[in-house]
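Lecture 7 notes: from sequence to structure.
We start with the chain below.
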Amino acid sequence: MKFLKNTFDKIRPNFEKGGKLFFLHSTFDAFETFFFVPGHTTHGKVHVRDGIDMKRTMITVVVAMLPALLFGMWNVGYQHFLALGQESSLINNFLFGLWQTLPIIVVSYGVGLGIEFAFCQVKGHSVNEGFLVTGLLIPLVLPPTIPLWMVALGTAFAVIIGKEVFGGSGMNLLNPALTARVFLFFAYPAYMSGEFLSNGNAVWFAGNRADLADGVSGATSLGQLATGTTPTYSALDMFLGLEKGSIGETSVAAILIGALILIITGIGSWKIMSSVFVGGFVMGSIFNMIGGTAYLDFPAYEHLLVGGFAFGAVYMATDPVSAAQTEKGKIIYGLLIGMLTVLIRVSNPAYPEGMMMAILLMNVFAPLIDYFVVESNKKRRLKRATV
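Predicted structure tokens for the same chain:
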């Protein structure tokens, strides 16, 4: 590391004011602060109460996503060979998933960071570190067969419309990764939530309808529920992640490992995570008491295991920029996300996932929730002061 530090110190004058490469100052600063803690403090609202600089925070979140990513790569291969009715080893499953997933990650980071660097060079600002997380979140919430040009388009939309127009990292109103997903969901719904495309290609595994083994369905658990049928996957399969779905969303077990990392390091809010699960379970239980359809009778605890519920609760709802900031507000915010997710799933099968809609809606209302919490605290303290 000393050699690397000396190298940065040696070439730094070229990128400082008056140097011949000063126009690339933001790019140089981005690479230097990626390896070494910067000599300045962060002033954005995300770190008002925290001594960790933003790059270290984002790297921790990336590490917390690795269990979901690694399992997702294996599951992509597992679902592929299972659908074809072929036997395959653990390593073959993983290598197939790696080959299918890696290009999506490369395109996401390449397009996103390219736009980030361009904006920062033009504005003369430091490169926003937030995309270290967003660049990995976007691939994890997408199907493994999505065309790469769609990944590029969705990423560009998320960075430009979802973040840069608001001022960059720490200023965005909505979660950028979810902004990319919802854009692609409405623009190209067949590629995001369908079972088969018009040309016969499958959405959830790399293959064609004609390639499927006898008795194998191309639908996810939520897709089966949307058609009024009971999911064929067991609760254990849902928990472990042995089902079709977006790359990083299927394994609740892997996601909970990431949740522990975020909670232990103090990066993620356990109040938001736990309240999302509680809210989803409460709303699912209410619908269970009503009953009458496959969705209404779907066990409340299984709502927490399917789709992107756990992934959204751990990695999306806890976004420190777009989430509620007050302690009571975090609980209210999380409860509403969980309840709305199940409500959207049950009441409108056209949006079987529900989680992305719920989080984006509550992103908009998070400042209002914090406002009422603060006002309530002020009124309570005033009453105490006048007694």
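Points to note: The CA atoms of residues 83 and 212 lie 5 Å apart. Residues 54-371 form one domain.
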